[in-house]
Amino acid sequence: MKRNTTWFGLTLSMLLLTALACAPARAQQPDLSGAWLGTLRAGAVELRLVLHLTRQADGTYRGALDSPDQGARGIPASSVEVKGDSVHVAVTSLNMVYRGQVQPGGDQITGTFTQHGASFPLDLARTDEVPGSGPRPQDPKEPLPYHSEDVTYENPAAGVRLAGTFTRPREPGRYPTALLISGSGPQDRNEELMGHRPFLVLADHLTRRGIAVLRVDDRGVGESTGDFSTATSADFASDVLAGVAYLKSRDDVDPAAIGLIGHSEGGLIAPMVAAESDDVAWIVLMAGPGLPGDSILILQSALIARASGAPEMAIAMNHEIQRTLFKVLREEPSDSAARQRARAALRELHELSRASLGQPPAEGAEAEALDAAIEQQVRQVVTPWFRYFIDYDPRPTLRRVKVPVFAVNGSLDLQVPSQPNLAAIREALEQGGNRNVTTVEFPGLNHLFQTAKTGAPSEYAQIEETMAPAVMEKIADWVLEVSGRR
Predict the structure, then answer these.
(1) pLDDT confidence bin for 164, thresholds 50/70/90
(2) CB of 184 within 8 A of CB of 264?
(3) Per-residue 3-state assignment (H helix, E strand, C coil) for 30-43
(4) Three-state SS for 155?
């Protein structure tokens, strides 16, 4: 998906944390400058957090908080207060508060982490080693045994200039070529997330096998121009069409063997392009959706929540929140009206939830955190992309795809569950008369095609493997076969 579509699951699975400080420190208080490491444990979820603090000349602190297990580093927060042995960090954009007490000796902070009203113990200790800052084992190393060049081209219909990297074998010739289409969120050409660069690793593998590859920064990301925030899946499809036209113009590309490899939402976009363009010869769908967007969100939310240890009551409440927001978006074409209705509906649902648990209405800082959480959720869903996605059904488009299709997924994918989506993809393609369809479920792999234990997003950054080699081998073999190169 082009956004993180686990918004409605446990927020602990999506932590992106930081800190910025401004509060006087007493002279007797030890200098807290440096890196502070701790592990947040909430049910099945474990996340390492690193708080970096630097004391300024006036006694205030500046800093940043990292979540290395999610590839998040240096994200600024709203305030930090240091008074005596007390430390208070508030990150309004993430609806997060950390309250801690510096222990004797000044090398440990014992405290509590609170986000969206849920609190968990979090103790921090000084560290000289910050985890997760180096390259992953599968990242290619220079010198590369193939040709690589940075390229730009235009999407004239959208007024967007797209930038990417094109790789091919060194020997002259016309090569079968894959255009990679990224998954959710504003992605660079490497699809970098959680400390991994899946498209860099995949492009390296395919190029070594004799397949040229174009990977591209999303519009409005990296060196590409345009506005990502206002774009829908249909807009991204137009960018892919521009990429296909660019590849046709190159004399080192076989124009009869240009294909698309889409991951997650990219697997939704690839059929859109293939159904419209005669220049697309084949498509590979990596964890692509075969079900409508609203169904995908409901399935993934429940699966991720259960993997994170959430009780069934919380999962049911989450489902009701989703159902309510979808209803508001469909009934209110005006963004301002939709935001107003969504805020009111979410407040009412949270109040009902607290009452059912015998809890009083939220007050003070807790009420402020709840309001901030609601506002953040409203901002995330009242967007052109989200409106488009929840109502988009990929099956009619898949019925129009006539080129060979290779659809793959992992059995532990919790974001685009493998079995229902692979089955829906195959059924729609065959209903449209496409008989060149191959689907493969890889056991033990997650949404990023990593070898995983549970498939929960909280594992993504903890796993050193960026992409299982067996998946890349299967894709390369299939592409070379359908391109007549085997």
Answers:
(1) very high
(2) yes
(3) CCCCEEEEEEEEEC
(4) strand
E strand spans, 193-334 = 212-216, 253-263, 282-286
Give the single-character DSSP code of 307.
H
Neighbour tally for 364: CB within 10 Å = 7
**Rounded CA separation 486/483 (Å):** 8
Spatial distance between the Cα atoms of 257 and 483, rounded to a whole number of angstroms: 6
Q: Which of 292, 382, 389, 404 minimizes the C-alpha distance to 337? A: 382
Q: What pLDDT was estimated at residue 133?
A: 58
Strand order in the sheet with 282-286: 147-155, 160-168, 212-216, 175-181, 253-263, 282-286, 405-410, 437-442
Tokens 């409605």 belong to 8
For residue 361, say if its preceding peptide bond is cis, omega within 30 degrees of 0.
no
Q: In the chain, what are the domains?
A: 11-127 (2.40.128), 147-292+392-482 (3.40.50.1820), 294-389 (no CATH)
Closest CA to 118 of 61, 40, 202: 40
Record the pTM: 0.80
Strand order across the beta sheet in which 45-55 lies: 72-75, 61-67, 45-55, 34-42, 118-127, 108-115, 96-102, 86-91, 79-83
Enumerate residues 6+ apart whose C-beta is below 8 A from 126.
Answer: 34, 35, 36, 37, 107, 108
Following DSSP, what letter does each residue of 352-371 receive, concatenated? HHHHHTTPPPP-HHHHHHHH
Q: What's the gap between Cα 103 and its chain centre?
A: 37
**CA gap 422, 419 in Å, rounded:** 5
Pairing label, strands 108-115, 96-102:
antiparallel
Q: How far apart, in whole angstroms, are the C-alpha atoms of residue 338 and residue 326?
A: 10
For residues 139 and 197, is the Cβ–Cβ distance under 8 A? Answer: yes
Q: How many CA atoms lie within 13 A of 120 on its CB side?
A: 18
pLDDT value at 446 more than 50: yes
pLDDT (tens digit, 9 = 90+) per residue, 64-90?
Answer: 678 877 666 665 556 778 888 888 887
Which residue(s) pair with 277 in the sheet?
none
